[in-house]
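Reopening this ticket.

The earlier resolution said the output was attached, but the attachment link was broken on my side. Pasting everything inline this time so it's all in one place.
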Amino acid sequence: MKRGLRRAGWLFGGLGLLLPAVAWCADPVAQSAAAAIGKGHASERAADFLASWLQALSGPDAAALDALYATDFVGQKQVGKRSIAVTRADFIKALRPDPSAPPRLLQIREAKVAGSRKNLWITLRTEWRQGKQSGQDSRHMVVVEQGGRLWIRREQLTPGRPSSLRSSDRPWVAAPLPKVSYRCAWASCSSDPSEQAEVQSECSQACERDAGQCAELAEMLQLARCGATLDVRRAIDLWDRSCQVARDARSCAKAAQLLSDRKEPGDIQRALSLLGCQGPPSARTCQGPLAAQLLVATADPKQVKRALSIYLKACGPDDSLDGSAEDCERAAAIYKQGLLGTPDSSKADELQSHADRIRMEEDRRAVEDPRANRHGDL
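Inline output:
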């Protein structure tokens, strides 16, 4: 969260600075106090800093805004898939209001923060109005502590498309700064052990409040990131919580994969339950290679039959060469080993032959167009 911008005005799509709807105090002393080391959690410190930022945007003192941006600041504007770097001077210049322009209003509708009190990763959703136009933008800030106070080191603006106001639109209603919520993100962690411990603590509390935050904490423990001690057992429980409570399919798959790797008593059945394989067959649950692998591991012919149907679907019909050769071979192994009761060499040979034809077709396509090799090296 970089390439050059010629005109500072383009940073905001020609709209310039959007003044806040709330009348913030512009006292530089109050701003410095808010930007200095605060108390409480990262979310509380972020709220104090955002109040200072809004004060500086609307205040008459241009130096107040300049004082919030670090000397090594990097600005960025995201336009579609393009990232445009903006110099510190141009970025700050674009933030200052144009006295000759119509009155402009800005307020923060949503604010989230990750990281620690000394290393804040702030995400904002802002709403603005100017003259007969309105819109919503998003911002991402990296705010760090230097010299006993906070500075904006990086800021990325993703402007929304402006729309024309209609007579039916509601009048502008000033809103106070919303509560800043903490978002667990181990990537926001620094190398400082004390900050790492703070991020771990904040993530644990966020997970307790919201099961949707548990996935990030689970990954932190599974991969031993952000100074965390490797703890696969707890990671499984957190993935499980995110799966069951937050209904996150990715978390279900993560927990099931770890359980299948661990191979402790009861793990296979628990993993199958997470993948929706315990009940009757369903087109929306118990799908994919991991589910099939676990079903085969039960050695129950009924479950193996369900696994076979998954493999055959991925393998594809005989008249198609767009299927998965690996899944054809897995289905062939079930027949060859007699996992359904009696070995069937004929069926196994047919599936192996189909897998060979698929691979030959993949090789032919790869020669014609290397990008068509779906199973090549990444």
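Reporter confirms the inline version is readable. The chain has three domains: 8-166+173-182, 186-274, 297-367. The mean pLDDT is 84.
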